[in-house]
């Protein structure tokens, strides 16, 4: 037996990971696993990661267009204590994300950042990309995901535009590996159109985002001009899921676990149902939609439900020329996370039903508690290497017109 | 397989944990109620750094004779290591997930010799 450490034990530098631990240390195993799987040479796109925009809220509010609201917000951010960041409604559930501190990176990332040439969020995003094995990362906000439920629709307009401008100025300019889907103030259709006009041609804007937590009908006539504009630009429209614990349908659910399981899927199930039954894919055949962060298990469920009922009640969805599931398979794209992996046969069936080889795009949701890793796609036993490469990056390259040359470095 | 020093027995108070680098591998050594346990620092979920997570007691929800619940409680006899990546919890004594015992950590061989602790990896 070869005895190592004759001069004493070699303890790991980090004995307990906490909110101060460097992202590279938290994800050290991920990097090693990505290297072991040869991902250095694969093009990998993460369609859904997050930053916590409220950490920079003092900066963001300076970009509010309305001068009165801007002044109010800036004064609030510098003087007021005891309230949440200016203008944000948030959700009760945000308090429970880390399971009482068991998952520290979900609570905060207070790690040291010495770099001063770019925004702190750029540094954190680079660290995440180079640890997870990602070449391009799409960054979404976090508490802003609830803005669609704000009682003042104009607040979504003010803050949405401020955020888009701040993103372009401070984050996207820092590293062209970071991409974004423009926040659309969807509760005010004309302002959503304005956001498409204003930000749609930015080189790091690869699409548009509706945060799904809202009660607006996606099929309302008010949105048709918006969809036409997006279709003409050739960039996809994403529906980014979120929960809303105050939703009456969740009124009896007392555990975050249950609320999160249902809430993150429910909003997209409703939007998808309306999207398909009102024939939006028939009206805008070149408009690609992407369904983000609801996992995948809901898709076969909804396909089966809609197909069965549609055949009995075709007159209620007369625009449809095909089965609902065919629109869901052929005109919609899906992101992987949180990929349900505890029932492998069901997952295999899901991949089959959504035609994952062409329609599925990897997403991590880093740094949230249920984040996924590229290795999970590499390790799937029921798809071939080409399908894995497609899901990890090539489908995204096609959909978003990205250069599929790997940019990360897993060996530094 | 090599043998790696994990320090002296006396370096460990009850409830202590030390993560030891063992070449390519990493092992977490724990002292609970006077006993030592060693687990590979690779979570059964996605190979995350499980041994570098928080140590907490198992959570229980006592049910009274009427089938009702009022408060949660900690099981003072069951120490958990909680993976910081996604929160999977494991009994430090058995290495098993409390909700599904098929989900478990990989044991590392631990030797106590002349007041010193060694792990094999
Ligand atoms: S890797 Fe440990 S909980 Fe996921």
Short description:
The complex is a heterodimer of chains A (about 400) and B (about 120). Chain A is an alpha/beta fold and about 400 residues long.
Average pLDDT score of chain B: 97
| Global shape of chain B | globular
Oligomer: heterodimer
CATH topology of chain A, by name, is TIM Barrel
By CATH reckoning, the class of chain B would read: Mainly Beta
Give the helices and strands of chain A as they follow along the chain.
EHHEHHHHEHEHEHEHHEHHEHHEHH
Described by strand count, sense and barrel closure, the largest sheet of chain A is: 8 strands, parallel
- Tell me the series of helices and strands of chain B, N- to C-terminal: EEEEEEEEEEE
Low-pLDDT residue intervals, each spanning 5 or more residues of chain B? none
How would you explain this protein's 3D organization?
The complex is a heterodimer of chains A (about 400) and B (about 120). Chain A is about 40% helix and about 10% strand. Chain A is an alpha/beta fold and about 400 residues long. In chain A, strands 2-3-4-5-6-7-8-9 form an eight-stranded parallel beta sheet. Chain A is globular, with a radius of gyration of 22 Å. Chain B is mostly beta strands and about 120 residues long. Chain B has strands at about 1-10, 15-20, 25-30, 35-40, 55-60, 75-80, 90, 95, 100-105, 110-115, 115-120. In chain B, the strands form four sheets. Chain B has a three-stranded antiparallel beta sheet, with no helix packed on it. Chain B has a three-stranded antiparallel beta sheet with strand order 2-3-4, with no helix packed on it. In chain B, strands 5-6-7 form a three-stranded antiparallel beta sheet, with no helix packed on it. In chain B, a hairpin with a 6-residue loop joins β6 and β7. The interface of A and B includes residues 15, 30, 369 and 376 of A. β1 (about 1-5) of chain A pairs parallel with β1 (about 1-10) of chain B, so a sheet runs across the interface. Chain B: Keywords: 2Fe-2S, Iron, Iron-sulfur, Metal-binding. Chain B: Pfam families: Rieske. Chain B: This is Rieske (2Fe-2S) protein. Chain B: InterPro entries: Rieske_2Fe-2S, Rieske_2Fe-2S_sf.
């Amino acid at each position: 037996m070869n005895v190592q450490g004759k001069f004493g034990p070699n303890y790991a530098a980090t004995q307990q990971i906490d909110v101060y631990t460097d992202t590279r240390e938290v994800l050290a195993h991920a990097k090693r696993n990505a290297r072991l799987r040869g991902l250095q040479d694969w093009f990998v796109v993460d369609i859904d990661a997050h930053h916590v925009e409220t950490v920079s809220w003092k900066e963001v509010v300076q970009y509010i267009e309305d001068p009165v609201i801007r002044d109010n917000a800036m004064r609030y951010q510098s003087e007021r204590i005891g309230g949440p960041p200016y203008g944000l409604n948030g959700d009760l559930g945000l308090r429970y994300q880390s399971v009482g501190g068991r998952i520290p990176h979900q609570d905060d990332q207070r790690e040291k950042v010495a770099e001063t040439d770019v925004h702190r969020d750029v540094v954190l995003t680079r660290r995440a990309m180079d640890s997870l094995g990602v070449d391009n990362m799409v960054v979404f906000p976090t508490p802003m995901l609830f803005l669609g439920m704000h009682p003042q629709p104009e607040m979504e307009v003010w803050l949405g535009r401020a955020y888009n401008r701040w993103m372009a100025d401070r984050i996207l300019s820092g590293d062209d590996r970071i991409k974004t889907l423009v926040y659309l103030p969807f509760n005010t259709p004309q302002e959503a159109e304005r956001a498409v006009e204003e930000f749609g041609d930015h080189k790091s804007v690869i699409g548009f985002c509706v945060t799904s937590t809202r009660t607006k009908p996606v099929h309302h006539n008010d949105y048709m001009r918006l969809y036409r504009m997006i279709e003409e630009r050739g960039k996809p429209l994403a529906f980014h899921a979120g929960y809303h614990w105050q939703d009456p349908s969740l009124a009896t659910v007392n555990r975050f676990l249950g609320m999160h399981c249902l809430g993150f899927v429910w909003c997209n199930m409703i939007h998808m149902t309306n999207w398909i039954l009102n024939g939006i894919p028939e009206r805008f055949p070149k408009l690609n939609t992407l369904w983000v962060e609801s996992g995948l298990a809901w898709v076969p469920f909804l396909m089966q439900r809609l197909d069965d009922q549609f055949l009995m009640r075709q007159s209620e969805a007369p625009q449809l020329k095909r089965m609902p599931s065919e629109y869901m398979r052929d005109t919609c794209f899906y992101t992987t996370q949180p990929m349900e992996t505890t029932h492998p046969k069901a997952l295999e069936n899901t991949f089959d039903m959504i035609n994952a080889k062409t329609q599925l795009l990897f997403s991590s949701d880093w740094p949230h508690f249920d984040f996924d890793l590229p290795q999970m796609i590499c390790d799937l036993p029921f798809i071939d290497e080409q399908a894995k490469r497609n899901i990890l990056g090539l489908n995204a390259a096609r959909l978003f017109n990205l250069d599929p040359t790997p940019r990360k470095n897993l060996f530094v | 397989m090599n043998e790696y020093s994990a320090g002296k027995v006396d370096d460990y108070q009850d409830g202590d944990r030390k993560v030891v680098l063992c070449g390519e591998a990493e092992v977490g050594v724990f002292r609970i109620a006077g006993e030592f346990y060693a687990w590979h620092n690779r979570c059964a979920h996605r190979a995350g750094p499980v041994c570098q997570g928080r140590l907490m007691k198992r959570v229980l929800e006592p049910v009274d004779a009427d089938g009702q619940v009022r408060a949660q409680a900690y099981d003072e006899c069951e120490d958990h290591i909680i993976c910081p990546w996604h929160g999977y919890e494991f009994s430090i004594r058995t290495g098993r997930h409390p909700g599904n015992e098929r989900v478990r950590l990989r044991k590392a061989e631990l030797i106590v010799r002349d007041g010193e602790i060694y792990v094999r990896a």
